[in-house]
């Protein structure tokens, strides 16, 4: 440590900082990332064995990938995330690559609201355009050849004929909530394939323990919990083990092209409901183009939900006054053929907010 400074409120250099005093130290730290909130500073020659008690790091609940729209912004994104990490200890990230989206980061958040705030700050404060992928967890794939692989990105999932079994991580969640919101909290947990383990009361607050698949938690569980309890419920969890699950890979196709950022693994029983809700939300968010845009949710080659964004249409018959109807039909047929060709070669612009909004649907 080169110097110790105390705030009075002006800075004043001193020999030591005592309990309750606020100041800072200057040390030979090469990178700010080497330090984090909650670290204990000790003497290098006479180090203490245990860290000072009382600090617990925030546990991320939602994990997703953030990728720059422009690949040249990758280093700027890395620097921006490092700066945000300094004043937000609950935000974590590590490098990730995608065949479709390029280089980016796998990030951990406290919820979808936290994700939205971080993305908004990256856009406003650092002038970055980003794509957020669907939240996910790490799955274990047992292949037919006996090999076991781990994937965290749905686009890396092997062909289903090569998969013998899929295991997903389960957690034990502890939820504290006022008694008046207990019914809504229990229903939320049951809807997310939860299994109740324990229910006790501490005064007028209920403490309930549930076993839940982490896959159901990372989407919007934390935000829903705060919603049904009007913000009074608290949520903590720890991983327990992996269990077999009937999971399927669901893709969102826009104009017959898969959108990697919205691919996800979902339970087979919930796939149709979530797929239908997502395509309906995407229909609202994608503006009309000069050609018709089909939006589909598909599992493999089977389409389970579809919506269509109608094309912008020019009135090509406006100059026809009276006369034979066949003239109007020819103009309409010509317009139809043109839009068909445009749909084949046209590119659909998906707004950035559509990626997060599509994940917040209630299936």
Give an overview of the whole structure.
The structure is a single chain. The chain is built from 7 helices and 18 strands. It is α+β, with helices and mostly antiparallel strands. Among the domains are: 3-30, no CATH class; 140-244, Alpha-Beta Plaits (2-Layer Sandwich); 249-360, Alpha-Beta Plaits, CATH 3.30.70.2570. Strands 8, 9, 10, 11, 12 and 13 form a 6-stranded antiparallel β-sheet that branches. The chain starts with a strand and ends with a helix. 27% of the residues are buried.
User: How widely separated are the two ends?
Assistant: 55 Å
Oligomer kind: single chain
Strand content: 25-35%
Q: Mean pLDDT across all residues, rounded?
A: 83
Helical content stands at 25-40%
Q: Mind telling me the CATH class of the domain at 249-360?
A: Alpha Beta
Could you name the CATH topology of the domain at 249-360?
Alpha-Beta Plaits
SSE succession: EEEEHEEHEEEEHEEHEEEEHEEHH
Question: What overall form do the CA principal axes indicate?
Answer: globular
Low-confidence stretches: none
Could you tell me the number of beta strands? 18
- The helix/strand class is alpha+beta
Query: Sheet bearing the most strands, described?
Result: 6 strands, antiparallel
Count of alpha and pi helical runs: 7
The name of the CATH superfamily of the domain at 249-360 reads: Elongation factor 4, C-terminal domain
